[in-house]
Description:
This protein is of the alpha+beta class. The chain folds into three domains: 3-198, no CATH class; 201-268, no CATH class; 271-452. The chain contains 20 helices and seven strands. The longest helix is centred in the middle third of the chain and has 29 residues, at 272-300. The protein binds zinc ion.
Amino acid sequence: MSAEQFSRLSLGEAMVTTRAGAAKAARASPRSPRDSNQDQPLPSIESTSPISPTPSLVISTKNLHYNVSAFDTDLRRTAKRGLEGNDIRMKYCAISDEEDSPDGSPTKYFYIGDDITVAIGGKLKRPKCTCGANDKGIACKHIYWVADQIISTVSDDVVKTPLHLSPDGSMIEDVKPADILDNKGLAMIANDLRWVYRDDDLPESNEEMKDDVISKLSVFEPQEALPGEFRSPESPLTSERSKKYQEFADLFIQYAIRDPSLYLQVHKILDPDFESRVFFEKIDNRITLTFNGLDEYIANGPTTTSPGPLRFDVPSCAKKLTALVKAIDDFYQHHTDVEDVAVRAAAALITILDRVTDRNVNAYAGITWGMEAPSDPVKNNLYVALIGTCVDGEPFVLDALESLPQEDVSRNHWGTLQDIQRKLAASDTPAPYMDTFQSLLYESRKRPASETRGGEPKRAMQ
Ligand SMILES: [Zn+2]
């Protein structure tokens, strides 16, 4: 039986008891004496008083019928405003990680437009609202609105008859919205009502939220910018489309800071798996473009026809590859708990290393376009520029590779890693770099891929 079926069943039973014991329910709810004829046919929707716009029957936005004849004029008006509250908008809802009741049930929070928050359950005996109208414990329109929304998510036969509300909003007939929240679960109720449900903490500062939203939105950046590049100020190479895109992103961030439900929805749409697939598609594309850029420069010399920089020589290529390795490492560090990010990062890093170790040659040895080629190997040999001169400092690619789980490094790449080892050994590789590579290879070998395949699959962060 699903949780929902269970919830419906238990609530259904509760309400059958309710209807069977209508008299008991009537005794349980505090009502005025003039309510004693409540089992009579209901009065018309028209108010009993021609002046007061406060009918005793209210039909809510969820099409539930409420008998508010026991309420005084003020409370009738409040109930009507809440139950018919088309102007009330849920931003998002969340479960508190503090303030548990003695039986372990946490408080649920409902963040409504105009910076109003309704809290239900947990230690609270009755719902609370921050709007100010709820100070004396009598429900305000927001509390009635939330209660109506919650009760509308239980099965139809529970809510056929006109319902009675308690003045504090804690009971509808003899059902507590707080109990529905506990039985059915806030996440499922939010799903039924298409409310945004917050299941993770929001960023602590506006700056953090801004960074996060910019990273997410970079999946749409029209020049295929990586998250870190998208964040930096525009360069002369920034296209008009990218500039417009950055303006749009800024606008979106302003609204997301005001209404975190936008932030939460962006997180649901651009889920971590999608974000990571787009990121590594861009990375793979960049790796190809970077090596092709160098090859094209070597073959044809500086070009004015392509949009990139004029000189795509060995130092420029080395700089771009170093930046790509850093971008991969940064992305992995921010997404360590996302499924497959380590696998994708390992594949991209090993591709870069493999292709650099193929290039222990003077790149300009056979050029035909009349440049005086630099004689310094650091300037004409990609391998020397990135690995051959790496005596101290961070070993190119290896520092990023080392931080990945080693089974993800060895999986599918064992043959390539051995090829790289052979090429490094034949290339006069500086001892510190060679040592780091050997120990990495040793770590990978300790856990062959066959041992890790049967392990628990990692869960994507939601
Ligand atoms: Zn309120």
